[in-house]
Amino acid sequence: MENENNGKTVLVVDDSEVMREMIKDSLKDKGYIIAGEAKDGDEALVRYKEYEPTVVTMDVVMPSTHGIDAIKTIIEHDPKARIVVISGLHQKSLVMDALDAGARDYIIKPFEPDDLISAIERSITG
Amino acid sequence: MNISKYNESFIGEANEQLTEMNKLLLILEKDHKNIDALNDFFRVIHTLKGTSAILGHMEIQNVSHLMEDLLDKLRSKEIDFNQENIDILFEGVDTLETMIDNVAKEKKQIHGKELISKLNASLISEAEKTADKESNTADEILDLKDIIFMLKPEEKKTLGAEIKKGSNTSLITIIIDEKCKLVEGRAHQIFRDLKEFGSIIRSVPDKEEIGILEGSRSFQIIFSTSKNEEEIEDVIYQTPEVNNIISEPIDSLSNQKVEENNRSKTISAGETIRVNVQLLDALLNLVGENMINNIQINQIASQHKNKNLDVALKASNRLTEDLQHYVLQMRMVPIDHIFRLFPRMVRDMAKDGDKEINLVLEGGDIEMDRGLLDEIGDSLVHLLRNAIDHGIEPSDARMKAGKEKAGTIRLSAHRDQSYIVIDISDDGKGIDVDRLTKAAIEKGNVSEKDAEAMNVDERLSLMFLPGVTTAKEITDISGRGVGLDVVYSKINSLGGTVNIKTDVGKGTKMTIKLPPTMAIIKALLINIGDETYALPLENVAETVLINHEMVHTVGKRDMFKLRDEILPLFDLNNEFIGASTRDDSGLSAVIVEKDSTRVGLIVNDFIGQQEIVVKTVGGELRRSKYFSGATILGDGSVAMIIDVGAFT
Known about the structure:
The complex is a heterodimer of chains A (126) and B (648).
Chain A: E1 9-13, H1 17-29, E2 33-38, H2 41-51, E3 55-59, H3 67-77, E4 83-88, H4 92-101, E5 105-109, H5 113-125
Parallel strand pairs in A: 1-2, 1-3, 3-4, 4-5
Chain B: H1 4-30, H2 35-54, H3 58-75, H4 83-104, H5 113-124, H6 144-150, H7 153-165, E1 168-176, H8 183-194, E2 198-204, E3 218-225, H9 229-237, E4 242-249, H10 252-261, H11 263-270, H12 277-304, H13 307-330, E5 332-334, H14 336-339, H15 342-352, E6 357-362, E7 367-369, H16 370-391, H17 395-400, E8 407-416, E9 419-426, H18 433-442, H19 448-453, H20 456-460, H21 484-493, E10 497-503, E11 507-514, E12 520-528, E13 531-536, E14 540-546, E15 551-554, E16 557-562, E17 565-571, H22 572-577, E18 587-594, E19 597-603, E20 605-613, H23 619-623, E21 627-632, E22 638-642
Parallel strand pairs in B: 6-8, 13-22, 17-19
Antiparallel strand pairs in B: 1-3, 1-4, 2-3, 5-7, 8-9, 9-11, 10-11, 12-13, 12-20, 14-18, 15-16, 16-17, 18-19, 21-22
Helix pairs in contact in B: 1-2, 1-4, 2-3, 3-4, 3-5, 4-5, 12-13, 15-16, 16-21
């Protein structure tokens, strides 16, 4: 258990339950606290306001509100929000859009748990 | 894949590469330590190797590969740079030239066995064989110099302004970790972050192209900022997966130098395309035919007096004029296209003749019509050969005469109003006019009596008569007395002139003066007998009507007085038809002028002024001194273009 991550909370946004579980497991292993999860962009904003997490992981392709729009509304609500985008290699341009919208960092699926952790760490320290 | 269609551009590109290699070798021959030239040479041969391999020209690939190996070893100082290596490389370039020529002419390819064994020998003598040092990334990291080449004019302007403002401008090369899955994403982050601290003037590759190539994981930017290098590197390192950053400051001085040297290159790199000259010629011909056709239509329209037709025709005429203008523009190329062939040629000839010669080229950026340039190439070669062989003395003779050991030949082009002037001057021994005159008399080109009456300039121009030479012995280079007359008539047929000035012991200067284009000229159309002829308008000073009383016969010559000037008068009816058809109503005369000599030409009638397309004539007509070419008129008939030089 890595104590340095105590108290650091993560909101996991993904429309796939399998992905959410996998992300949550990877984070928990490293001592992060799962603040909560959301399965679409609309819910993401609600949960963000509710939990005020340290970091958000955000899938860019989701039903109803698009990941990009969700990033925009969250940043609008909290300009200091730290969002790490998760994208497939086929949505390259979405990565750029997400970065323009205010995402701190990105990782590309498929990824190793370490990739995710280091992206989250960077987004916190950076 | 059908590769034969790429051969044409391959040959064009390869020929440019050969010229470049020759140029670089000449630099290296003088300065073995010139790393830039060595690197450039390496880059050029590397490219040639690659393209020839793709197109299956294995012989070319083979030779360039070996040359590349040799260059690589010279570069890494595994092999000492000596004259022997230079000579092998020169030989290599020559072999490549032959090979590329064989590709162009679809001839059987040579293997260059002798050269290959020489190259191998030069490589093997250094025992150690190093592994192939091919880089393992798909990127080519460019020099600052190369990137500045690539800048668009507005980018260059911005960079210049930033430097002037005192901003920290630098070329930053960023290398992303090979584990990165989306290099463009990292680039995007870096661009986003940097924009807060300054401005990105240029990125190589363009931002949209970063990371597209398989294995590509680096990019370069020109960045200007008020922050210092360290602060900027910190900003970039914030982005994950940045492996390495190389910053190279851009300071005004070196930058400007590069900018000046390569202005024309920048244009050719980004904003031009290669077009087959034959296509350009075909296009020009079509424009010419179209003009002639337009003239015909105009003539028909003038009989119909239909206002709408006239308006439409006017528009059509204007469009044709514009078209012509742009086609002619397209045909303009810098004179450097042939100038750059000369350093190598002069080097070889100087070496053969055991002379030391510096060739100075000036005004290579002057543009002229491609066709005209092709036409004068041989003449320039000839004049250069003359300067090398007869002008510049051997080193010992020069030292004895108190001159610099190495002779200088200066080839310089400049504009004089609408004309293009090319000077070929040397600091050699000059021309012995008396000996020249004697030679001309011996050859029977001029009688002793006539020669006596000549002034120095006239005697000098005896050089342009067939067979006259002062050379004591015939050499490989020149001296057979064949040539200067050919040069003279060639330049004349192009509407130009050749002049010589010489100073015994000090040198000779040949001056060629040419009209900027030969394809379409303005002309005055005239009638002689039943025929129409064209006089180039640039030679026409004025047209006058004169009375018989104004004409005086002096000796065999008709003269007349125009204001305060006495001018010789030629009746073109006499000259061309052999019979005067003058009536008593007065004479129509055109005052023409060439090389500041003016004469009057009597014609039957003036028809008017018109643009004409110059076509060259062949056979007997070419040998006639009266005509420089022909054109086709609106009614489809042919009109000869009169060479005013025949009368002046």
